[in-house]
Amino acid sequence: MSESWADEADRAEVPLAGGDVTDGVVRVGDTVRRPVGPHSPLVHALLAHLESAGFTGAPRFLGVDGYGREVLSYIDGEVAGRPCPPWIADETRLASVGRLVRACDDAAISFTPAPDLLPATAPAGLTGIPPAPGYPPELIGHADITLENVVFRDGRACALIDFDQAHPVTRADEMFSAMMWWAPLFDPCDVDPLLREVDVPRRARVLADAYGLSGTDRERVIEVGIMHTRRGWYLMRHWAQTRGGGWRRMWDEGVGDVIKRRESWLDRQAATLTAALTAP
Predict the structure, then answer these.
(1) 178 and 98 in contact (C-beta within 8 Å)?
(2) Across the chain, what does the average pLDDT equal?
(3) Would you report the helix, strand and coil content of the chain in percent, each value rounded to 5?
């Protein structure tokens, strides 16, 4: 598809900020240009499936430009940058995030990618990493539902962006990704000031209710979150060592310590959070 975009060298490119590890993301007109990588074939196939399934809350994959970058449709709206905007604690917006993620997952559940598109469960040569949760994946999920990856319009979550971390997940995995950033499930010292005084168990419950999370998944979401957090420290260290760039920068800035604090906080709060999620 690169020929469709090869004649745009003279169009203005506007850098887009917000991501931690992907450099070189720019807006060109009503499109976004991003570097491609090993993850790209799966992402492109997933976005094509979501479009065919009628899900409107994701970018459209349009092709590859003359510089070898993927071309995606630009989605207009508000994104929570840094520092966070005052509306970040609004529970009406929070509930809309849960509904958006559910709609995306419901559209993705019928997507069956070719086996060669799927990422390895753990990088080759990475030893000592704790085991992943043993529950079988249900769908290819977004898996990176950060504050910066949700677009709002008219006070409602309308789209997910940046599908680079998409991989096989359970619904509990997907909800932990949303809760981690939006409840948020972090040690309070690592939370944005606007979210330090919120009722975290309540916000986790708002997300679960809006998503329509099953009773079984409500019981296991914190369990799988703790397991993913323990694995996350090893993965972040490995990616910092092997990929460099933004991964190295995040590690040098202390993300490993943040992950360890989150693990300890989740261990302490697990019973309280699970009780809030499963209460009648």
Answers:
(1) yes
(2) 93
(3) 50, 10, 40
Report the DSSP pairing between strands 31-34 and 70-73: antiparallel
What mean pLDDT comes out for the span 256-263? 98
3-state SS assignment for residue 16: coil
pLDDT exceeds 60 at position 5: no
> Domain check: are 44 and 148 in the same one?
no
What DSSP state is assigned to residue 250?
A: H
> Do 32 and 26 touch, CB atoms closer than 8 A?
yes
Q: Which of 46, 73, 100 is the last residue of a domain?
A: 73
Tokens of 12: 């203005």
pLDDT by residue (tens digit) across 77-120? 999 988 899 999 999 999 999 999 999 999 999 999 999 999 88
Whether residues 113 and 237 fall in one domain: yes
Range of the domain at 9: 2-73
Q: Mark whether 57 and 94 lie in a shared domain.
A: no
Q: Beta partners for 140? A: 168
What total number of domains does the chain contain? 2
Q: Is the pLDDT of residue 270 over 90?
A: yes
